[in-house]
Amino acid sequence: MLAMPNFNDVFTMGTDACASGIGVVLLQKGQPIAFFSKELATMHQHLSIYEKEFLAVIMAVERWRPYLQRQEFITITDHKSLSCLGDQYLQSELQKKAMTRLMGLQFKIVYKKGLDNLVADALSRVGHAMAIPAVSEILPLWIQEVINSYVTDSEAQQLSQQLAITSPDNSGYYLNKGVIRQGSKIWVGHNSALRTKLIAAFHDSALGGHSGVQGTYQRVKRMFVWEGLKQDVDSFVKQCGVCQQAKHERSKPAGLLQPLHLLELGRIGQWIS
């Protein structure tokens, strides 16, 4: 959450879907409170535009239900037919299942052109439209640092010498302009400072958005590879001060504490409840 919500004000959701992803933003008085984007699973990428837009609404509701169930909220979409949802005959199984998720909620769906729903539109395209700029910006900055880290890394030195003779090796490693690679990924040696710096770049940046372990791990492993990568990401995210302060608790309430039964001491060696 970017800001504390005011439950006296109306919540507004901006939703959008593209060919491979969905994006939503939660607002109050035009100010963003939270963002959410997600790449669509393969089974959902074959849905119609209408169904994808509907799915974006459902995913947003499921994510922010605790904030939306208190009063009527507004959903903004750039898909005009979705604004008439209440008057439509539900034909597909997805529609029927999705509508059960909306039961008990008071909401209004408002149509706006895509140009007036830019935030959600941009979020829905993060997965592919922003991937190329991210690669082109980050790689030139880090390649030289990776090469420099090999100098003090005995394993990297040995591997570089072997690859200079036989490349690629049996594990798929090869040498390219001084950089050890495995497939399209850059191999990082045992330089803990550099590893931390790389994880921070993918976690703390605007694109990273202080996402969780899995999201950060997926972004790092698209470009880099090293032994213990998942464990390093897990440790970094769990120690992130911003995440510890800002991320809300998503587990269900533990419930009320139950008092212990009162005991009375009758005579020596005997308890009476």
From TrEMBL:
SUPFAM superfamilies registered for this protein in UniProt: DNA/RNA polymerases
Domain Integrase zinc-binding, chain residue ranges per copy: 191-248
Gene3D superfamilies for this protein: 1.10.340.70
Domain Reverse transcriptase RNase H-like intervals: 7-96
Sample GO molecular function, one term: RNA-directed DNA polymerase activity
Keyword Transferase included in the entry's annotation: yes
Keywords (A to Z) from UniProt: Endonuclease, Hydrolase, Nuclease, Nucleotidyltransferase, RNA-directed DNA polymerase, Transferase
Transmembrane portions of the chain: none
PANTHER family, per database record: PROTEIN CBG26694 (PTHR37984), PROTEIN NYNRIN-LIKE (PTHR37984:SF5)
Protein name: Integrase zinc-binding domain-containing protein
